Amino acid sequence: MADLLRQVTDDESETAFAEASITLWSNLLTLMGTHMLENGMPRQELLDMLTMLHETNEETIRSPRARAIAGRHLMSVYRALGDA
Question: Where are the domains of the chain?
Answer without folding.
Answer: 19-83
